[in-house]
Amino acid sequence: MADTAQPNAELLEWPKKDKRRFLHAVYRVGDLDRTIKFYTEAFGMKLLRKRDVPEEKYANAFLGFGPEHSNFVVELTYNYGVTSYDIGTGFGHFAIATPDVYKLVEDIRAKGGNVTREPGPVKGGSSVIAFVKDPDGYIFEIIQRASTPEPLCQVMLRVGDLERSIKFYEKALGMKVVKKVDRPEYKYTLAMLGYAEEHETTVLELTYNYGVTEYTKGNAYAQIAIGTDDVYKSAEVINHVTQELGGKITRQPGPIPGINTKIVSFLDPDGWKTVLVDNEDFLKELQ
Ligand SMILES: N[C@@H](CCC(=O)N[C@@H](CS)C(=O)NCC(=O)O)C(=O)O
User: Which chemical reaction does it catalyze (predicted)?
Assistant: First the structure.
């Protein structure tokens, strides 16, 4: 099919019919053991797996609140010899839901965590939140929420045009807007997008600050990985949507040499990266 041809309606429906799930957020840290210690002791995450790839001079650690076949997790990357990164201004935070923000924040402080915003109601709203920084400077929002199946509940990124981003994530990724909040008194609008309600699963929180259209990306945060049943069909839709809204495919669909897991990688209109990973191949990696 030529790039300019209109894809059929059935293909454009595919992202909504596909089995999509947030798998992990990938980012770089300067000392793997330091972060593992902090996330397990201060946040209460579990270390799920670790792999060292000396021939490529990097190592990974996967941590989360539940197993990877059901929960969203973080994939930390350590590049041999690189001890610090620039987080940039566009990355916002990861979030952890807990029934008692005050208690978790005290535990984090006791483990040497840097509390940058004390617990209390969010400005302009009523949810109780706090902000803490991890050893590399990544911000974690701590959010009060009665028990949830997915404590690792948000990835927040700043975008330059919220309506364009919403269209992109709806059309290219089949997400739904599960919440939208405008706080004119604080000059921002945010949208929560995902595959289920906020308390059920991880959501992508996109924040638009009035009048701000550009942010720096730094080199620390990398991408979100999302599961799919068909990377090839997904790539056809993404290719179409990027022509309409911006963004681009950065890695054509197909198996990764060596691992054989099929993926497709792409950038959204702001340059934020997503990787779609074949669901079956991913489960094989976990065995
Ligand atoms: N200018 C903010 C807009 C987003 C925002 O303010 N988010 C809320 C949480 S939803 C917040 O951080 N509030 C600060 C507070 O309540 O102290 C940003 O880009 O991070």
Answer: (R)-S-lactoylglutathione = methylglyoxal + glutathione
| Residue at 285: amino acid letter | E
Write the residue with the smallest CA distance to atom 12 of ligand 1: 122
Q: Is 150 a catalytic residue?
A: no
- H or E element: which one contains 149? none
Task: Output the DSSP codes for 205-219.
Answer: EEEEETT-------S
User: From the alpha carbon of 156, which atom of ligand 1 is closest?
Assistant: 20
How far does residue 60's CA lie from ligand 1's centre (Å)?
A: 30
* Most ligand 1 atoms within 8 A of CB, residue of 87, 94, 123 to mutate: 123
Fold of the CATH domain 9-286: 2,3-Dihydroxybiphenyl 1,2-Dioxygenase; domain 1 (3.10.180)
Q: Does ligand 1 lie within 6 Å of residue 117's CB atom? A: yes
Q: How far apart are CA 57 and CA 266, in angstroms?
A: 24
Q: What is the pLDDT along the chain (287 residues), one digit of tens a residue?
A: 445 567 788 999 999 999 999 999 999 999 999 999 999 999 999 999 999 999 999 999 999 999 999 999 999 999 999 999 999 999 999 999 999 999 999 999 999 999 999 999 999 999 999 999 999 999 999 999 998 999 999 999 999 999 999 999 999 999 999 999 999 999 999 999 999 999 999 999 999 999 999 999 999 999 999 999 999 999 999 999 999 999 999 999 999 988 899 999 999 999 999 999 999 999 999 98
Q: How far is the CA of 229 from the centre of ligand 1 (A)?
A: 35
Hey, what amino acid is at 271? G
